[in-house]
């Protein structure tokens, strides 16, 4: 039975198109060129941060984040960057009586933004920088489980990546939902992990309330 639903952030709740576009601008690279390289890196199974190395060898993402902040161009997102189904899905899941969380690989700065957007909506907001553990490290999912008031097998983790979200969450003992949006899920959608591992494969977060309800009914 699923009693808690925890969401990844980027390309799950938040559309990162604008933010990655600002990284292209920071690098002085045309946005379509940056996005093409980003997709190629993902399709090759490489770390997305290799994209930056292709344009600027030796690029240090953490250092550049601080430089952007100092220049008044810090990474940011807001209400207008949320996917249109994010708030309605959260509201429906809350109405169903589910415990809700948001947990992803995000900076302390992003954590503050998430709290400003969702503190009144969900029960948990946690980031990798807050916890000192990043996906796909099992410790990250242990942190999630330790904070949820249910057993680990009663948690549904929702994400867009097989490698960072679905596989490690399943290995931790959670149910999983893969949402097809953003570059990772679009590229990985037809591979064996994407087909075989998730408890649910969804095209919209609005599918979750009904899918969870039917899943729970089947367990009675």
Topology (elements, then pairings):
Elements: E1 4-7, H1 17-27, H2 31-43, H3 50-55, H4 61-70, H5 86-95, E2 99-104, H6 108-118, E3 124-127, H7 128-131, H8 138-147, E4 155-159, H9 162-172, E5 175-179, H10 182-188, H11 192-196, E6 200-202, H12 208-218
Parallel strand pairs: 1-2, 1-4, 2-3, 4-5, 5-6
Précis, in short:
By secondary structure, this protein is α/β, with parallel strands linked by helices. 50% of the residues lie in helices and 12% in strands.
Q: Just name the CATH architecture of the largest domain.
A: 3-Layer(aba) Sandwich
Mean of all residue-level pLDDT scores: 97
Low-confidence stretches: none
**CATH homologous superfamily (4th level) name of the largest domain:** HAD superfamily/HAD-like
- Which class best fits the helix and strand makeup? alpha/beta
The tally of structural domains comes to 2
Provide an overview of this structure.
This protein has 12 helices and 6 strands. The chain is of the alpha/beta class. The chain folds into 2 domains: 153 residues, 3-Layer(aba) Sandwich (Rossmann fold), CATH 3.40.50.1000; 54 residues, no CATH class. Helix 9 links the parallel strand 4 and strand 5. The protein is globular, with a radius of gyration of 17 Å. The model has no long low-confidence stretch (mean pLDDT 97).
Key terms for this structure?
about 220 residues, alpha/beta, Rossmann fold, 2 domains, 6-stranded parallel sheet, globular
């Amino acid at each position: 039975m699923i009693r808690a639903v925890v969401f990844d952030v980027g390309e799950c709740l938040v559309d990162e198109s604008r933010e990655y576009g600002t990284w292209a601008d920071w690098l002085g690279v045309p946005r379509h060129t940056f996005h093409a390289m980003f997709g190629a890196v993902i399709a090759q199974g490489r770390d997305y941060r290799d994209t930056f190395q292709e344009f600027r060898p030796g690029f240090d993402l953490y250092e550049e984040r601080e430089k952007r902040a100092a220049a008044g161009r810090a990474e940011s997102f807001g209400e207008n960057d949320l996917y249109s189904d994010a708030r309605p899905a959260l509201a429906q899941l809350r109405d169903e009586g589910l415990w809700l969380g948001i947990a992803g690989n995000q900076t302390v700065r992003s954590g503050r933004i998430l709290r400003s957007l969702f503190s009144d909506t969900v029960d948990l907001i946690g980031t990798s920088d807050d916890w000192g553990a990043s996906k796909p490290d099992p410790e990250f999912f242990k942190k999630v489980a330790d904070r949820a008031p249910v057993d680990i097998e009663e948690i549904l983790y929702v994400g867009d990546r097989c490698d960072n979200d679905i596989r490690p969450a399943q290995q931790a003992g959670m149910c999983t939902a893969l949402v097809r949006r953003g570059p990772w899920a679009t590229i990985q959608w037809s591979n064996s992990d994407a087909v075989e591992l998730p408890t649910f494969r969804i095209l919209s977060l609005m599918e979750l309330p009904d899918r969870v309800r039917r899943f729970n009914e089947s367990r009675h």
